[in-house]
Design goal:
With 361 residues, the protein is α/β, with parallel strands linked by helices. The protein has one domain: Purple Acid Phosphatase, chain A, domain 2 (4-Layer Sandwich). 40% of the residues lie in helices and 21% in strands. The chain contains eleven helices and 14 strands. The chain has a seven-stranded mixed beta sheet. A five-stranded mixed beta sheet has the order 1-6-7-8-11. The N and C termini lie far apart (56 Å).
C-alpha cells in the first residue's frame, strides 16, 4: 500500500504544496532584496556581513539547503550526508571559507532538539571552520528560527561550543586591480510567499506534509519539482541583479543550480548553438545526448536565455534524492558551479561550469 501511495501521491502533493505555498512576485522580491542590500551599506555587520578581499586571495565555498532533519522518513539530508561530509573535509583542508547560505536545518518539520541530536557529526566538522574564523551562517525560510527565537543563541552555543552570529546576507567586495567585483549572497526567500507568513504554507507543512512525507518517504527536492515556479523565482532574481548599481547575486532557496544566470539545460542549449554555428558535428552529438538526458529531469527553459548576462548564480542544494550535492566555489580567480557526485564508496568533485571572476566586473 505504501509503495502504491508513493507513486500516486508524490506529484499531486508536491504540486499542491508548491502552488499554494509559494507564489513568487517580482515587485515583492525586488523590494525585499533592495531593502536588504541597502542595509548592508547603511548598517554593515548588523544583518549583513561585509567581507573585503581581492580576487586572487578569495576562497569561498557556498552551500545551501541542506535541510538537516531528525534522521527519519522525512529527512531529505540523510542520503546526501556522506557527499556533504566529504566535500567539507576537502574545503577545510584547502583553506576555504564556508558560507552556509540558509535552510541548513529543517525547522519547519522538526523542533530544534532532534535536529541537533542527529547531526552532531556534520556540526562538529563545521565547528572546525568556525574555530579558524572560516564559517558564516545565513538563515533561510526553513531555519528562520535562528533569527527570531529568543533561545536561538543558546542552542547555537551548545552546538558549536561558542557563540555563532547569524546573518541574513553576505557582501563580498573582491578587488581586481583598480576595479572591484561586488557579490551579494542571501538565501533567496526574500519576497517569497513562504517567507511572508503565508498561512497555507505553514499549515500545510506542519499538519499535512511532514507526517505524509515521513510515512511515504517522499522527497520533492529534485529539479523536476515545480519547474515553472523555481524558474520564475530565479528570473526575478536575475532581473534584480541586472538593474544598474545592483551587484552580482548568489542565492539558494529554489534547489535549482544556476550558473551565470542559466540553468544547466540552458547552458547546454547555448553551447549547442555555438557548436552548430561552427558545424562541430562531434560536439553537436555530445551536447544533444546531454540535453536529452537532462530533459528527463528538467525541461523548462526561459525564452530569453541566450541574451542573459552573468549576473545571477544559484548554489542548488545539498538534499538531492540521488545523494549528490551542488554548490558555488569562488577560488583561484574563478567562480565555479560544482557538484559532488555520490559514488558507491565515496563522493567526487565535478566542475560543471566556471568563468573568471574578472568577467563579472
Amino acid at each position: 500500500m505504501r509503495r502504491f501511495l508513493q507513486k500516486t501521491m508524490n506529484k499531486p502533493v508536491t504540486w499542491l504544496a508548491n502552488t499554494f505555498g509559494s507564489r513568487p512576485n517580482r515587485e515583492r522580491v525586488h523590494a525585499a532584496l533592495t531593502k536588504l542590500y541597502n542595509d548592508s551599506k547603511e548598517n554593515p555587520g548588523r544583518k549583513v556581513l561585509v567581507i573585503d578581499t581581492d580576487v586572487t586571495n578569495a576562497r569561498f565555498i557556498i552551500l545551501s539547503d541542506q535541510h538537516k532533519g531528525a534522521k527519519n522518513g522525512s529527512d531529505d539530508f540523510m542520503v546526501c550526508e556522506h557527499s556533504y561530509m566529504t566535500a567539507l573535509e576537502y574545503y577545510y583542508e584547502q583553506g576555504f571559507h564556508f558560507i552556509s547560505l540558509g535552510d541548513e536545518e529543517e525547522l519547519w518539520e522538526n523542533t530544534v532538539w532532534p535536529v541537533k541530536a542527529n547531526n552532531k557529526e556534520s556540526t562538529a566538522l563545521q565547528k572546525k571552520f568556525l574555530q579558524q574564523q572560516r564559517f558564516t551562517k545565513v538563515y533561510g525560510n526553513h531555519d528562520t528560527f535562528w533569527n527570531n527565537d529568543p533561545f536561538a543563541g543558546m542552542h547555537l552555543k551548545s552546538m558549536y561550543d561558542g557563540p555563532v552570529k547569524i546573518y541574513e546576507a553576505v557582501v563580498l567586495q573582491l578587488k581586481a586591480g583598480e576595479s572591484k567585483v561586488t557579490i551579494f549572497l542571501t538565501h533567496g526567500h526574500q519576497g517569497d510567499g513562504q517567507s511572508d507568513s503565508n498561512w497555507f504554507s505553514a499549515w500545510f507543512t506542519g499538519r499535512v506534509w511532514a507526517p505524509l512525507q515521513s510515512y511515504l518517504n517522499l522527497n520533492p527536492n529534485v529539479p523536476s519539482a515545480s519547474d515553472e515556479l523555481k524558474t520564475a523565482h530565479n528570473l526575478f532574481m536575475y532581473q534584480w541583479s541586472e538593474q544598474e548599481h545592483n551587484p552580482v547575486l548568489i542565492t539558494g532557496h529554489t534547489h535549482q543550480p544556476v550558473f551565470a544566470s542559466l540553468t544547466h539545460l540552458e547552458n547546454l542549449y547555448k553551447k549547442l548553438a555555438v557548436a552548430r554555428s561552427t558545424m562541430d558535428e562531434v560536439l553537436i552529438s555530445t551536447l544533444n545526448k546531454k540535453i536529452r538526458f537532462k530533459q528527463n529531469e528538467f525541461d523548462f527553459v526561459i525564452g530569453s536565455y541566450s541574451n542573459m548576462k552573468p549576473y545571477y548564480f544559484n548554489s542548488g542544494c545539498c538534499c538531492f534524492m540521488d545523494g549528490d550535492i551542488t554548490g558555488i566555489e569562488i577560488a583561484d580567480g574563478m567562480i565555479r558551479l560544482i557538484k559532488w557526485n555520490k559514488t558507491e564508496t565515496n563522493a567526487e568533485r565535478i566542475v560543471l561550469d566556471e568563468m573568471e571572476l574578472k568577467e563579472l566586473i
